[in-house]
Amino acid sequence: MGKLRWIGLGLLALLPLTGLGNYPLHLVILCLLWGFVYTGWAVMGRLGMVSLGHGAFLGIGAYTVVMGWNHFGLSPWLSTPIALVSTALVAFLVGYPCFRLKIVGHYFALVTLALSEVARMIIVALRDQTGGSLGVTPNTALADSSWSLVALQFSSKVVWFYIALGIWLVGLWIWTRVDRSMARIALEAISQEEDAAASIGISVTRLKLGVTMVSALMTCIGGVLYAQYQLYVNPETVSGIGISLQMVFGAIAGGMYLRLGPTVGAVFTLLLTEVLRLALGHDIHGLDTTVYGLLLILFIIFMPKGILGALIAMREGSRRTKPGPATA
Amino acid sequence: MQIFDIFLLEAVLNGLLFGGVLALLALGLNLIFGVIDVVWICYAELIMIGMYAVYYLHAVYGWPLWLAFPSCVVVVSLLGVALHQFVIRPVLAAEPINQLLVTGGVLFLLQGIATLAFGVEFKSLGVQLPPLQVGELFLSSSRLVAFVVALAGMIGMYLFLTRTYLGTAIRAISQDRTVMPLMGVNPHRIFLFTSALGGALAGLAACILVLQYDIHPAVGLSFGPVVFLVCVLGGLGNMIGGFVAAFIFAQFISVGGYFLHLEWGYVIAFLFFIAVMFWRPRGLFGGGS
Considering the domain boundaries, does residue B1 fall inside one? Predict the structure, then answer.
């Protein structure tokens, strides 16, 4: 199994050398970037903290770097730390009262949902600076060269492929670290029975806040890279209720209890939207959203463990040897 | 610089009227949550469908308003029943969060269907009520009508819940979901009935919102998130709390929007909300944790 993983990774790393066209490579990059973001969401989502507010963190990342570059000529290398600090601050301001005062489940989801909507509204309200709902393009640094390290802009998709691959691997590494930590076991206990966990000396608030920070910061980095790669940001695509729900659905569709689950979810949702777009075209407005919504409903009703989770459950069901390690 | 700015007074009054509408919206959501323990994320989208129903019945098919409004209430009420029967019921035994997310899927579905069927253009009912003048004040009479209707709807709901057998059963279920089946109450029937009731409230809200808002597939987003905040602030499932919280929120949005831009009103309301959470975790009226 271990060997297989390295071979798979090696093949993935060689992908751009196969002369893949620009469009397929673009899709792979998006899969990796969103895979990273969804993995970041799942870091906290799998522990019972279902946040619908990650759109806010994505938006902070994306807009901080673009605004910093356009208005102050600040390199993304310098504005990213600012974005990270802001993200941590927001995550703390919303997370601390929630965890301290045991706001869980529906309450937590609704509070965070409001957070992502407020982030979207702030971006729209600052329309003089942010371009409002029309979105904004970072000033190009590619006028006379094909890349600029200071502006973090590269015209070559191959460069972006390796950046996305790198960050995706970092994301998986963080996921594994959290998965193997004592904190994960403690948090799983918390998600089962918060009061019982607290009674045996688990510091509920601190642990939850820690995992939330990790998750929020990952999402913020995702926002930065997404903005730099697409060179266009829009309040609808990086914040608000739509993208926040999409993150949750992606992670759940793939299977949020497994390391590669969110990535599978990212591949699935991306391919779904692309196939719907190509098959149905732009002529029929709303058909893609309709099919998307319908599939999500069916997924949650019939496949709550996600694609990867269902596949593994099927394989284990057909083997029926020994009760393997619990995947959930 | 006079202290009693006439426009500020107007903003406060408008906030009061908006509060009534918000309270009606929160009531439906609170009812559903209190009884079924499910949050309809797609609540505002049900209202959107209701608004289209009024528009098509009245402006396209030429039905009179007195017929179109009740029809809208019936249509959305049936939608609520269908939502429970086909979407919520299969996941009732699943993790609570799945119930919330599945209605998120319905949100996309309804938006998509509305776009498919009705297009993305803004539609207006074309019914203009003349503005009301009191001294130097100008008030929109459609808002006043909305306020009165919302209040009447809430009083009717209150009487129903406290004065009838079915209403009492619904309140009983919301207090203890596990014991009620033992007392001979069929929870599924009560759930379906509550969904119909919640849908009817959404339909009523659609009737009064259609007088103020232009209709488009994403119109639900302009009031949906606020309603969620109102419900959390008042304590989910706490109908009285939701009522008071609606008026507080509406003031923030209306007066904040008057001094700055409308979006800032929402942002200030949210900041207030966070502050309250530090101060009163279970919502304003939730008691101790």
Answer: no
For B91, the closest chain A residue by CA position comes to A301
Distance from CA of B92 to the nearest CA of A (A): 10
Whether A117 is covered by a domain: the verdict is yes
Nearest CA in chain A to B96: A105
Contact A285 B221 (CB under 8 A): no
Q: For residue B114, is it within any domain? A: yes
Say if the Cβ atoms of A122 and B229 lie within 8 Å: no
Asked if the structure places residue A185 within a domain, the reply is yes
210-229 in B: which are within 8 Å (CB) of A?
A: 217, 221, 224-225, 228-229
- ipTM of the complex in this document: 0.80
Give per-10-residue mean pLDDT for chain A (328 aa).
77 77 87 93 86 91 91 88 94 85 78 86 84 81 74 81 91 88 77 75 80 93 92 85 85 83 88 80 74 85 79 75 45
Chain B residues within 8 A of A124 when measuring between CB atoms: 263
B108/A293 touch (CB, cutoff 8 Å), yes or no: yes
DSSP code for A134: G
Inside any domain, residue A197: yes
Helix A54-72 / helix A105-125 crossing angle, nearest 10 deg: 20
The answer to whether B71 touches B53, Cβ cutoff 8 Å, is yes
- Count of domains forming chain B: 1
Provide the b/e sequence for B121-157 (b: ≥16 CB within 10 Å): eebebeeeeeeeeeeeeeebebbbbbbebbeebbeeb
Evaluate whether residue B286 is within a structural domain: no
Count of structural domains within chain A: 1
How far off is chain A from B231, nearest CA to CA, in Å? Answer: 9
Q: Which domain holds residue B207?
A: 6-279
pTM for this structure?
0.83
In 3D space, the residue among B199, B261, B166, B212 whose CA is nearest the CA of residue B14 turns out to be: B212
- Residue numbers of the domain that contains A67: 21-239
